[in-house]
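Suppose a classmate hands you a notebook page containing two proteins, each written out with its sequence and a corresponding row of structure tokens. How would you begin to make sense of it? This section walks through that situation. The first entry is reproduced here exactly as it would appear on such a page.
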Amino acid sequence: MEDRLVKIHRVTKVVKGGRIFSYTSTSICGNKKYLIGFGRGKSREILESIKKSYLKARNNIIKLKIYNNSIPHFLYAKHSSSKLYLFPASKIIGLICNNIVKQVLISAGIKSIFSKIHGSSNTINVTICAIKALTFLK
């Protein structure tokens, strides 16, 4: 299984004595053979949050039904204010999509697809959208 770190976010909490920093990290895990997982970790240290997100991603693995390295039909998913459209494509075309969606599709093992994002292009929402859309495969 291959782990990919999508985003690290620093959160600051201001208290009477000063500032408290904590980190949230988002990661995906896939074997490039139609298995994919998503995880988020929170901690006061960067390495701890990354380890937690990798562990959660490995525990939340989903098996996808993909044929000929592409999707068999049109897919749509919405999370928060992000909307993602995935269209099937021929083998010659390759991955035509956002960098975040491309990371998810590469780790899932999909090699040819079109995609379009409407609304917010927030990295965390888009990764959740992409994984949600891939779970709708029949």
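The notebook's second entry, a different protein, reads as follows.
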Amino acid sequence: MLRDRGNIKWTAMMLPEHVQRLKNWQSELKQIKKPAYDEWTLQALEEEVLQAYYGKKEVIVEVWHDKTSRSFPGIIADLNSEKKKLLIQDQHAFSKNHWVDVDCIIHLEILA
């Protein structure tokens, strides 16, 4: 069976500018926009956050960060309503705490 090597086989014939343009184009494809929510979506997200916080349930929070998304597993240890931030405390790694902006949350999944 013939294995295709993608762009690797063509890079010898490409100019460095073309290779750089292809890399930039691929990185632009991976970029996502910062989420903008309506009132109903924010209300549903707030209910999920409060349910996970008061129930001390483990969650995975997917967050928009620098035009990409990052996931943070753990429990919601603290809510700061003034700054609109959550403290996600990772249960599997010591001292892994992440402050997350509520405005940047893409998805919140309660694990049970």
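A careful reader of the second entry would note: The longest strand covers residues 68-80.
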